[in-house]
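Section 3.1: Structural characterization of target chains.
Under the original work plan, the team committed to producing a structural model for every single-chain target entering the pipeline before any wet-lab resources were allocated. The record below documents one such target. The sequence was received from the expression subgroup and is listed exactly as submitted; it comprises 257 residues.
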Amino acid sequence: MSKTQPEQSGHGQIVVLVKAAPHPSHQYRETVCTAGITYDREWVRLFPIAFRSLEEVQKFNRWDVIEYRWRQPRDDNRVESRRADQGSLVVVGNVSPNQRYGFLEPLIVDNLKTEHAAGRSLALVKPRNLTFQITKRSLAELDAVRTEFKRARDQGSLFDRELRPYEPCPYSFHYSYDLADGHHEGTCQDWEIEGTFFRWRHQYGEEGAIARMQQRWGTEFLEKEIIFAMGTHSRWRDRWLINGVIQMPSEKQPTLL
């Protein structure tokens, strides 16, 4: 008896957990790492998502439920990856705070090496012994990022939606932490953390924004239960990135299912 072949296309829904900061793309101008979990608790990675090109009604946040058409990619063999039809994407709901803990808790793991060995490239972990650090990026680094985004943007079609120049965050945000498989360090790719910096800089100035960033992500979050949404790099499949920092409710709530 032949093995059942995996589906090559279809419709899907996920609860969004990952919306990472944009990256320049020669093919798509810029893309945002987007991933989430189905109601059957299966991970899905969607690409290419050019988030800033979406219609306003399509733009999603963490915990939104999105629906989309997809097909199996030819250039990404990670088991969770789906090539999304961006035009089909629609926000159809949201997971309320009192449902989130029970939904995610069964998916939390403590060993990324085991996940990689099993062929998985997305995972939730509960980090221990965390420390948080903010690093100022050099002017040369920021100029190089701006150049890459401009080059990618200029390659767009005349029919593409015009995008404002992307301004990279002048700081990078880092965590060190422990899991069962040892000590880890990583840069936080979560777009929310960059968006918060720019919003607070506008309100409080740069020094005030940094002080509040350190207080929230480096003190308050460490006193609460947080989990990291991790994903492997598209080129270096054994390199795990912190794609999302998720604060869990202070009290355990019943499951979503």
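The chain has four helices and 14 strands.
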